What does this fold into?
Amino acid sequence: MDAELSPEQRAIRRTLREVLARHCGPERVGAAVRTPHGHDEELWHRLAELGLPGLAVPARYGGAGLGPAELALACEETGRVLLPSPLLATAGLVAPLVAALGSPAQCARLLPRLADGTLTGALVVPRGPLTAPLGLTGGRDGDWAGGGRSGGVQARPADGGRTWRLYGEAPRVLDGHSAGLLLVAARTGGYARPRTLLFALRPRGAPGVAVTRLTTLDETRPQARVELRDARAEPLERGDAAEALEGLGGSVAAMLAAEAVGAADRALGLTVAHVRSREQFGRPVGSFQAVKHRLADLHVAVQAARSAAYCAAWAAGRGPRPGDGDPAGTAVAGQLALAQALEAQYAVAAEALQFHGGLGMTWECAVHLYVKRAASDALLFGPAHRLRARAADVCGLFDTAGTTAGTTAGTTAGTTGATTGTHEEVML
It folds into this structure.
C-alpha cells in the first residue's frame, strides 16, 4: 500500500476544505437541518458542480471514474464540518448499486443525474441496521429484507410481469425524506423460492408511497420512515442483490470511518483551541501536564484511526484478487477501520465535552453537535465490538475445530514448531 496521496487527491481535499470553510459554518449547519430537505440545497448544487456526487461514477455516465479512496477523502472533509448532505446515500450506496445491478438503459437514465447531483438517492433496508446487508455486522443470509410473506418489504409481479408492486415498510432510511430515487430491498418468491431484489422507484407523487421524516438524535444525519402500499417499481436484476450489497460493504465502511475521523479531528482541534485560551490559576488550562497527556492520547487515537480508514479505502479500491482466498476478507479492513474510527470519535467527543464543561452543550458551541454525531454513529453503524466480531468470523480467527485439528496433528507428528505456529496464528 502506498500511503502517499496523489496530486489529484490532494487537490480534491484542498478544494473541498476551502469550499466548506466558506459555506458550512456551525450556524449554516443549524439552519440547513431545519429546512424541508434537511440540507443546504444551494451548497449541494455547488458541490455537485465540483463533481462530488459523481466521484466514483464511471466516466461514460458523466462521473469522474475515481474510487473509494477519493470518496473517503471527501467524506473526511464533510465529516469535519458535519455537513448534512445526501453524499453517503447517493454516491456511496445508490450510484454503485445502480452501476452494478442496473440494465444499460437504467444506468443511462439514472447514473448521469446521480453524478451531477440533480437526483439524490436512498437505500431502503426494511429490517436491522444498514451494516447488516453490507456484510459488516452480519452475513447475506440475515433477515434484513424480511422473510416469507410477512415482515420487511414484499414484492409481487403485476401486469403480466412487466411491473412489480411493493408493500411493507422500513422504519429508518438515511436521507430517505429528500431522495428522488429509492432503491428498495424486497423479498420475492414467498416461502418456496425466496430471493432478495433491489427495486427502483420515484417516491415523489407516486401512489402508495408515504415518506415521513423522523426526529433523530443527530439532526445532521436525517432519517425517514418509508411505507409502501402496492407501490409500482422496476427491478434491478443484473446480478444478485445480496452479493452486490455485501461487496459494497468495504467501500461504505471506509467512507464512514473517514467521516468519523474528520469529525474527531475537528472536535479535537476545537478542544485544543479552547484549553489554550481558557485560564485557571493564572495560566492556560492546556499548560497543565495532565491535560497535555489526555490530549496527546486523543491525537494518537485520531491518527491511528485515519491510517486505518485510508488502508480500508485502499483495500476497497483494490478489491479481491486471484489467490486472495475468501473474497469476503476484503471487507475486513473496512470493518476494523470503522470500529477503530467509531471508538476514536466517541472518545474525542467525550473528552471535548469534558474540557469545555457546561459550555459544550450550549447552542453557541459546536461541541454538542460532535457529541451527538458520535453517539448516533455508534448506534447506527456499530457497536465496535460487533464489527470486530464479524471480522473475526470472516477470517476464521476463532475456528476452534481447525485449531484443535492442527494442534493434534502437530503433536502426533512430534513437531513442536507446527503446534507453536498454530497457537501463534490464533493469538494474531
